[in-house]
Amino acid sequence: MAEGFDSADTASFLKSLGFPSLVVHHAFNHFDFSRAGRRILVIGPMGSGKTEYSARVWRDSVVARNKSETMALQTASDGADRRKVFFVRSALDAKRFPSYPEDALAFRGGYERCGDQIAVIRDSFGLEQLLAGRPDCGTWIIDEASFYDERLAYVVRDAAERRGLVFVFPTLILNFRKDIFNTTARFLLDTATDVFPLTAYCEHPDCLADAFYTYRYYTVDGVECPALYFDPLIVIGGDREAVDPREPNYCTRCDRHHHLPGKEYTFLTLKPLGERCAAGDPEPLEREIAALKRDRDHSELSRNLRARWDGSGDAVELNALKVSALAEKALVFLFAEQNLLTEEQFLRLVDRLDLDRDYLVRCCADNRRPVKLR
Questions:
Q1: 66 falls in which pLDDT band (50, 70, 90)?
Q2: Which of these, 49, 316, 54, lies nearest to 201 by C-alpha position?
Q3: Which tens digits make up the pLDDT trace of 305-331?
Q4: Residue 37, in any domain of the structure
């Protein structure tokens, strides 16, 4: 999409219709199924229309398949026709839109029924099986590709270059921390041939600015509580309002209204405590995790946030101290993301501090460091 015309062509066309000189934005055109081998990143915050873009590709494919068979000379290679589109969902994301049909390519404004042209996978090996099982499909839409292992980027590049397949990735590239989502996102950027950035309105009630960022927050007693920097990287949600203090909400926010407390604490205090634990000195980390569990007002986290935000008026950042499971989240960050703690050290802290086992099992599994807790 957004192909075919360049800005000069579009300006000339509009001038021929009698429009005065003005700023011309790039035209939005139908998807070009004739161009082989592309890896198309469709990036933007949650709610910016990434999956809706994919739905437009799907609808364009329905029109394109109704053209004459001679069109296959332009859209086919190595037995695959790029007018045949297959939609791939992540198993991590499967619980979104629970009220929609199982074969739905779902987005916030509706859905398209894909029939047998849709599947759920867990990793790049699952994608390889799909590609082998459907050699006739030439265009593959892989939703939330950053959720997969980094190997996926090279599986895709090989299939695109070897067979001329086209891949469309409606995906987050930045996480709620405003960092590159993960190594997979970085590799997708490295191997992409086209990038379409999308924005959304900032969802703060007093703002109409463009928003590039996905904001994660929790609702506790009706109060907006921003996620701390060390909140688990992957937590599924965002398509319905959550009032459970353990389940996050997501929205799009501009830089001004995107609150991210705790980054300084994470690298000044939490990570160094994890490194000391890894080096054989677990007591300081245990004291801090215990404080986050039982007496967070006397934790180093509380001291850090209050030193930074107390006296600054109605500081939303301080509401982060109201969020549930801070001890568990800090431990998941050190264990599943930073890989500083051994499984034995992790289990010992869970047992000694009587942490929430169900929450930890779920978070560790979602972040690809599964554990078994008694």
A1: very high
A2: 49
A3: 999 988 776 689 999 999 999 999 999
A4: yes
Of 253, 281, 316, the one marking the end of a domain is: 253
**Is pLDDT above 50 for 231?**
yes
pTM, full prediction: 0.80
Q: What is the dihedral of CA 274, 262, 210, 95, to 10 degrees?
A: 60
Residue 304 has pLDDT above 80, yes or no: yes
Angle between helices 183-191 and 151-163 (to 10 degrees): 20
Please tell me whether residues 194 and 211 are part of one structural domain.
no
The answer to whether residues 43 and 153 belong to one domain is yes
Q: How confident is the model at residue 101 (pLDDT cuts 50, 70, 90)?
A: confident
Residue 372 — pLDDT band, cuts 50, 70, 90? confident
The boundaries of the domain holding residue 229 are: 207-253
Tally the domains of the chain. 3
Residue 235 CA to residue 93 CA, distance in Å, equals 10
In a shared domain, residues 88 and 218: no
pLDDT(6) > 60: no
The answer to whether residue 90 scores a pLDDT higher than 60 is: yes
